[in-house]
Amino acid sequence: MQTNQETLGALERRIDMSVSMADIDKEVDSRLKRMARTVKMPGFRPGKVPLKIVAQTYESQARSEAIGAAVEKAFGESVREQNLRVAGYPRIEPKEAAAEGTLSFSAVFEVYPQVELGDLSQCKVERPVLVVGDAEVDKTIEVLRKQRTRFETAERAAADGDRVVIDFAGRKDGELFEGGQAQDFPFVIGAGSMLKDFETAVTGLAAGESKTFDMTFPEDYHARNLAGQTVQFEVTVKRVEAAVLPAVDADLARALGVADGDVSKLRDEVRANLEREVKRRIQAKIKEQVMDALLTANPIEVPKALIEAESRQLAENAKRDLEMRGMKTKDIPVEAAWFTEQAVRRVKLGLIMSELVKAKELYAKPEQVRALVEEMAQSYEDPSELVRWYYAQPERLGQAEAVVIEDNVVEWVSAQAQTTESAVSFDELMGNNAA
């Protein structure tokens, strides 16, 4: 076998190879003989078909397989000899000009980039700081109360926070428009489920009262036939209901999983859950900055083959997520190209982190994995059950190991970078979810 390597780009390579036709002929003969031992043909017992007849029927198949095997072997030997890390699959191109008695071809492929870890000392990482106190516990309990809101009929005009039940009809140019009418329609004023102007018009009306008003839809309204259009609504309030929140008492504590109804235990559980969530969100914010720092300090090109594979995987993940939400993805086009930018980032980070973990020995230690699994299990009613579930299968434990490795990378990079602490508000950290 003869080979010759050529560099086509930063990561693209071409190897020209040739293999002896005599060797291929030997392999074809060997394959036909093996076939002859088991092949079945009418008029012959198994294994007794003459080799000449077997060749007449199967030589084309045997030659195709022999050439494929020879090409694969030649390529494998060549990349091993030249110590090349191939990314993806090679594109095999036959060559017309070949020496007599040889089969010549080219393999065009990509190689993994050489990752040389850069200096992180000039990168900046801001570590959010938040101590969970009584105010954060109170705010979270208030959210839990609102989630258990009940409504009672109120003999007064509707106000912010009330639930109203209405009949309404909307007309554009005097004609009812599609989706603009309903009966016994409930909504909470101020919850944002209706347009602000509609809510304002209903506010102040009591049960049995009606109102006719003009309203202009926003320019970016989802129904294009109504976007920017002025319509007229007729509204009749059927019922006004005031929100009633449960008291912070034993009944609420029991409803939230505290068996004996002890409110102090409820507060302790809320605080513990908040501390875990705050820790998780702070770690996520630091991780995002660390990943940006790694990309900045380690600019690399990545193989197109890896980007395409990652894009396809992300598209498949998106389709599975849609299916889990009850959607039929056969009617929803999900293009791998939509995920190219995300795929590039993920591939780059994967290669950089792999080199960093190897160079700095940031592998997951068993005790770290155990600590992580036990921490995740604390939010479950029976923590030991989740621990057993993780340790029952290597694949599940591998997920926890991957998280630990990421945490090790985040900690190591934070120590190398210019890391500062910055106080953050509860609402800011939680994305206003607890407001």
Mean pLDDT across the residues is: 91
Q: What global shape is seen?
A: elongated
Number of strands: 11
Instruction: Outline the biggest β-sheet.
Output: 5 strands, antiparallel
The amount of beta strand, in percent, is: 15-25%
The oligomeric status of these chains comes to single chain
Which residue ranges are poorly predicted, with pLDDT under 50 across at least 5 consecutive positions? none
N-to-C SSE series?
A: EEHHEEEHEEEHEEHHHHHHHEH
**Structural class computed from helices and strand pairing:** alpha+beta
Supply the number of helical segments: 12
Supply database-style keywords.
about 425 residues, alpha+beta, 5-stranded antiparallel β-sheet, 4-stranded antiparallel β-sheet, 12 helices, about 20% strand, elongated, Trigger_fac_C, cell cycle, cell division
Question: How would you describe what is shown here?
Answer:
The chain is of the alpha+beta class. The protein has twelve helices and eleven strands. The strands form three sheets. Strands 6, 7, 8, 9 and 10 form a five-stranded antiparallel beta sheet that branches. Helix 1 packs across helix 2. The longest helix has 35 residues. It starts with a strand and ends in a 6-residue tail after the last helix.
Question: What's the arrangement of secondary structure elements?
Answer:
Elements: E1 2-7, E2 12-20, H1 21-36, H2 51-81, E3 86-94, E4 102-111, E5 124-129, H3 134-147, E6 150-153, E7 163-172, E8 175-188, H4 196-202, E9 210-216, E10 230-244, H5 250-255, H6 263-297, H7 304-324, H8 340-360, H9 366-377, H10 383-392, H11 394-416, E11 418-423, H12 426-429
Parallel strand pairs: 5-11
Antiparallel strand pairs: 1-2, 2-4, 3-4, 6-10, 7-8, 7-10, 9-10
Helix pairs in contact: 1-2, 3-6, 6-11, 7-8, 9-10, 9-11, 10-11
